[in-house]
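protien #1 (seq + structre)
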Amino acid sequence: MTTKPTSDAASGWDQATYRCGRCGVKHTVTTEDAYLKTVGVHSDAHTVWDRLNPIERDGLVSILRTILSAPDLAVELLALADRQHLTGGGTQPPPAVPGKNTPQPDSSPSNTTARATE
């Protein structure tokens, strides 16, 4: 015996509106799966937002606006991150080695301070 899954319309779904009690946003969806996904994603968004301070929120929003307006950029950034991760390359500068790659005091005569004679 086989059973055929019922469609959302056959099980009483026409549409449902989710209204967030925290921020008031409303989302209307037409399937139960879409409703569950909407509630979950919105809840996750609140969780992330609550963990950020105002500066981090501004930065995240700026980055998202840039990336979401250019899907090709998002794909390339993810590919770059994956390549960096696989090759062990990161965005961290090399470790400081005194005398090799660190700034040194300028000992030229133009850097000396004039001293008054006593």
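ok now protien #2
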Amino acid sequence: MVRTSILPREKRDQQAGRAIKYNPLQSDLVSGFVGGVAEQVPAANVAAHGVQAAYSAINLMGDQPRANKQGHMTGLWNALRQFVPNDPLSQNLMQRLAEDQGVDRAR
């Protein structure tokens, strides 16, 4: 299934090894034409969030400064949040857990 309208996209700075915090399809790992097409396919978003979760988890296991780990924690949290039902009770619980763990607020 493909979306019927094009999603607006903001211009972003290059990542250069930074954490993927928000939309994995707009990251440097997947960019350009392939990323634009993949954003229009909801199933590709599910796969991309799985890749984002794995990427963040692997980087969290490495030996990095706390500031870098914070970004990867936020990326992992935002990726896993996509697999939780979109009802107000579940999302509220997830938001409270995120605040307790010190995860950056979602945009």
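The chain has one domain: 24-101.
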